[in-house]
Each structure stands twice: as C-alpha cells, then as structure tokens.
Input
Amino acid sequence: MNRRDFLKTTLLTTGGLLLANLFAGAATETSRVPATRRVRLGIDMLEAENFARLRGEKVGLVTNQAGVNRYGESTIRVLHTRGRRAGVDLVALFGPEHGIYGDVPAEKIVADQKDTRLGTKLPVFSLYGGTRRPTPAMLRGITKMVVDLQDVGARSYTFVSCMRLVMEACFEAGIPVLVLDRPNPLGGLKTDGPMLDDKWQSYVGMYPVPYVHGLTIGELARAALHENWLKLSEKARSRAKLDIVKMGNWKRSMLWRDTGLDWIPTSPYIANPDAAEGYAMTGLGCCIGKFSHTFTASREPLRLVRPFRFLGYPGKNEREMADLVNSFRIAGLRGVPAVLGNGTAKGALLAVSDWRIFRPTEISFHMMRQCCAWEKRNPFADAQGNDKSLFLKHLGDEKFFNALCREGAKTDIKAWCSRWEARAAEFRRSVADYRLYS
Output
C-alpha cells in the first residue's frame, strides 16, 4: 500500500482530526450476479486461450494473495499446474509490499524466500526488501514477466508502483511484460481529486494521474508506456513489449459488487470493496501533527466495522459529526450517526447514496479545512519534515497545500474541487486511447 499502510490506516489525524479508517474482516459474500455474467479475469481469459501467450516461455510472476481466478484459485497454482501442462515454465515469483501471501504488515521489509504454502517450492523474490526494482540476477533466465495484481483505483497504492518498476527493469533487460487485467473496484468512469505534481512522485504515487484515476491496472500500464511515464533508455523504449490479457464481461460502469466476484483482501487494511471505496474517500487525510490512538486497530470490537468510513473527533458526539458531514453538502454522500466499539467511538459513518455524482476525495478536503477551524493553530502551516513530505506525496498538489497553510478555515474547498474536476476531465480525454473496455 503506502507508508504504514497510510499510517496504519487506523486513525489518521490532521492536527487532531480523526479520520478513522477501520477495517472489516473478510472477503465479501458471493455476489448474486449469475455465473454467466460474472466477470472473467485476465487469468481466466489466459487459461481459456490454453496459455498460448506463455507457451514455451520461462515465466516470472508478480502477484500476491489477491491474484486469483474468478473461482478464487491462486494464479500461482493455475500457472504451476495447468499452465505447466500447456508448456508454461513458471520459474520465479515476485512479491510486492505485504509479500505474496499478503500477511506482512505495511512498511515491513519482506525477505526473499521459497514458496512452501502453495507447494511450488519456487524462489520468491521480494520487491519490498533490499530492492523494489527487480535486479538482473532476479531476472536471469526469465523470458516473459507476468503481472497479476489487484489495484484499488486510488493513486497512493504501492502495487501499481511495483508494476511500474517491474516494467522498467524488464524492458531494460529486453523481457516482455504481460499484464493480467483486473477490475478497478471504483469503476472505469470516475476520475477525481488532484493530479500528482512531478515533484512529489514517489513509491507512494508514481503516476501523473488524478487521485482516483478510473483505469484498470492493464490500462494504466498501457498509458505508462505510451505516455512515456516510465523511465527508460531509448534502446529499452524502442524494444519494449507490453501485452494485456483483457477481461471478459467487464464494463466501465461496474463497481466491484457488479462483477460477481468475491473480494480477496488486497492488503491487511483493504479487507472488502467498501474499504477500497473508503480509501478513495479518506486516504488523503494525512497525519500532520498529533497522532491519536483513540481508536486503534488492535481493539477487537472495531476490527469488523466498515473500513475507511468512520469520522470522529475528540469531544464531538455522533450527532455533531453527522451534522458536520452533511453540512458540507457533498453530492451523493451523507453522514450517519454511529456509536461503535461498545460506545468508545462516537462519530459519523460515511454512506454513499449515489456513486455516479459523488466526488470521493472531497470529504478529505473538507475535514482538512475543519481541522484549521477546530485546532488552536493551523496544523498545515506548522507542518514540516517527514509529516509535510508524506502529506504532499499523497496529496500531489502543492498549491492546494500552500493555500491551506495561508487560508486555513477560509479555504474554498468547492472551488478547488471544481479545478481538479476540470483537470480530471482533461486527463480522461488524454488517456482515452488506452482504454480497453466500453
């Protein structure tokens, strides 16, 4: 994900404001979408082709626990068993942040290992350990690299950064890359939030896209290559070979609940599709100033609450918080009073009433401004060092940060959102040629 799974994605405070990002417990229930209309993932379509694009290749695979087919079977197993019978030689695995099993805490170093849990005994190279870019030694003997990672549709998620560095290393080594496409859980129609200034590109966010980008991971890979977002030598750029295995039955209008697929937690704090939607809503609420432990992730009663959808503030009750959220008049969003954790947490649950008209990131900016109203000092103006740089790496727009520092509670959030909306529309037009689905 990102730094401390964005500061552990528990309570993010901005000068004391609690953006309480609680997580839920398990994969979603099986959708009622008929099996014939269920989305067929990239790995499903690859198998339907009898693995023709990988036949005779020595394959490296970048994936994790969420890399599964539509029946929940690991892509690793699919390629290692049925793929092998079709002539595919899976020789190495590569794991992003949290590792290939998804059980390493955020920001923790992941060691190289051998796969024992899935029975392949293949080497597993960590791309969140001593290096985040595959080394020549790791790539030795590989003739094609496959990427099967589930993105969440928000810019500050490290799996797509992992993909970018893999693409760069492979293209420099003359190795083709094949991306097995997966749904964007936020759909393919919505773009929202600030663009990322080049100055603030990092592993937290490596692409010059709006915070909600509206692309599948395969489409993002296509745009990265053809828009020259990748750092490549001229030789590598001229010989770069990227192929995408498209999904079947996926449409841009689909949210995850429309796909008929079960959700496999992509990282420890994105346990269900609501968390992915919520992350787009409150993921920009960075910790500047005091970090509160009022509602910590270790408190068991809060582990099963809807993640990324709860807002609280010290001394404010649930009705006050819900009224505050509703006073922002964010189209498609309402605050619902809630008392959680045996009465220890009082605040507002964020309920999306109409995703079509909703700007997911807007709530974060209103809460940032509210911090300036509630705190004795403007916490953004006081920010410095790592707190400030981390905030800007997520936010991406230094001009807004400077305005927040100057204007505090007088910042015109609606005006900023309108500017970002206009830029997002430009972005949609600029990447139209890389879309793979209607």
The CA atoms of residues 171 and 237 lie 7 Å apart.
